[in-house]
Amino acid sequence: MTIWIAVNVPEGLVLAADRMSTITNDQGAVIQLFEHAHKLTQLSDYPAGTLTWDMGSIAQRTIDSLVYEFSQSLLSVEHGATVDIGNVAQALSDFVTPRYEAYYQANTQLQRAEIGMLVGGYSTGHSL
Q1: How many Cβ atoms are within 10 Å of 50's Cβ, its own excluded?
Q2: Cα distance between residue 120 and residue 92, in whole Å
Q3: What does pTM read for this prediction?
Q4: pLDDT digits (tens, 9 = 90+) for 90-119
Q5: In sequence order, which residues have a C-beta less than 8 Å from that of residue 106 and are 6 or more positions away?
């Protein structure tokens, strides 16, 4: 279980999450606990970040590493990019979903786990 919070306050957006992660086998038995999981990721130089929970990896890739790879594909704000948080969230979903689907198509014996993801931040020209 992940504990996370997202709060919009007058001075900005607060995103926070715990760092515990549990690895289980196909039967749900705990294999290992990690105390330093990355569940909070800044998206490029955008005024935006992600919180993730539930499924921690797809095949050999952590969700954090996939979010980071996606983040590196974003055009820098310094190079004139405008930020629309709704579009960024959809693009991130479009990036992760094919990898998720391919993993479960290759591993049909596994029960599908959920990936929880919140994308929060500020769109260009908007104060909230």
Answers
A1: 25
A2: 12
A3: 0.86
A4: 999 999 999 999 999 999 988 888 999 999
A5: none
